[in-house]
Amino acid sequence: MLYLKKKDFEKSADFWLLADALFLGIEGPYAKSQHYLVQAQIEVNEKKATLASQAVLKAEQIILTLDQAKNLAMYIQLYDVKIDIAVLKEDYKTAFELQKKEKTLTDAYQNDVREEARSKYKVMFDTEQTLLKNKLLEREKQFTTVELENAKQEQQLKNMVIITAAILIAVLFFFFYRQRRTSKKLNRLANTDVLTQLANRRYTFLYSELELKKSISTGTAFSIIIFDIDHFKQVNDNYGHSAGDEVLINTAKTASKFIREQDILGRIGGEEFLAILSNTSLPQALEIAQRIRLAIETQLVSYDNNVINITASFGVAQFSPDKEDFISLFQHADKYLYKAKNQGRNCIVSE
């Protein structure tokens, strides 16, 4: 499994053969199913769809005997391998259906992880609160003893110290709260396009680099969509820059409706937008781009008693090893965008 993740498929296959020699000694369903899933992944990498299907079928027969709710990770891994096999067979419809089922399981798995973490931190918080209350009670007892032993003048002095300390803590807390709120506001402003309230170019590219690294490490698909409003200069020339701003705002709102919560849409230029789609194959990205294109084409922007119709051109690309890094992927998508412009606009071009 380690060599599979490192994409050293030859060594992975060698070690699998060593493991297979010991397979008769395996009794647990988890180890058995894992063994077949690794075999299936190796066969996929060697483009042996039939052998991969046979191996994944053996794994599935074992996994289906396990309680799905308690073994989401194993079911998700099973779907991942079946998706790879479907893609290898060029059965993209099956791959897409499996992808939807896997997403449902992944969402459930993530919810379980979040609930487990939430329960853990609640216990920690309650424990800390109890300790804090015990400390406060102990201090109250100490203050009571001091009050009984000290004279009236000393008590007055202590009260003054307590009041001063409380005021100081309140002042420090106020400044800390205001500083934190200001910091969040500045960070949001630094990463947000003021006009459209989308991510700006700097943040979009930074986010893209991080998400691409995650996709490479997990072996999941990663696609981007670049689109540009057609003849935007004519909008500014004919109706004014305020009308152009209204077109940009409406376009941002329209396109955002088709972007998933875990993805991001950013404005990276005057009338140019970039959508980052993690765990998304090229056919899926093309479908999203088509939905955005049709929505933009049919939207009506009203400004100063004028109705403005606009369209947009799209370039779509999926990451692959030949693209090396995000900049290379971006350049491919940008090239497709210009091809779309040259082919008459209001269309989508991909590899």
Written overview of the protein:
The strands form 2 sheets. This protein has a 5-stranded mixed beta sheet with strand order 2-3-1-6-7, with helices on both faces. A two-stranded antiparallel sheet has the order 4-5. A hairpin with a 4-residue loop joins strand 2 (about 265) and strand 3 (about 270-280). About 70% of the residues lie in helices and about 10% in strands. The two termini are about 30 Å apart. The longest helix is centred in the middle third of the chain and has 58 residues, at about 90-150. The model has no long low-confidence stretch (mean pLDDT about 85). The protein has about 350 residues and is an alpha+beta fold. Helix 3 (about 30-45) runs antiparallel to helix 4 (about 50-65).
CATH superfamily of the largest domain: Reverse transcriptase/Diguanylate cyclase domain
- What is the domain total for the residues? 3
Question: What name does CATH use for the topology of the largest domain?
Answer: Alpha-Beta Plaits
Helix content: 55-70%
Radius of gyration: 29 Å
User: Could you give the distance between the termini?
Assistant: 32 Å
Number of helices: 12
Low-confidence stretches: none
Overall pLDDT: 87
CATH class of the largest domain: Alpha Beta
- The string of secondary-structure elements, in order, is HHHHHHHHEHHEEHEEEHE
What percent strand? 5-15%
Number of E strands: 7
CATH architectural designation of the largest domain: 2-Layer Sandwich
The profile of the biggest β sheet is:
5 strands, mixed
Main sheet strand line-up: 2-3-1-6-7
What global shape is seen? flat
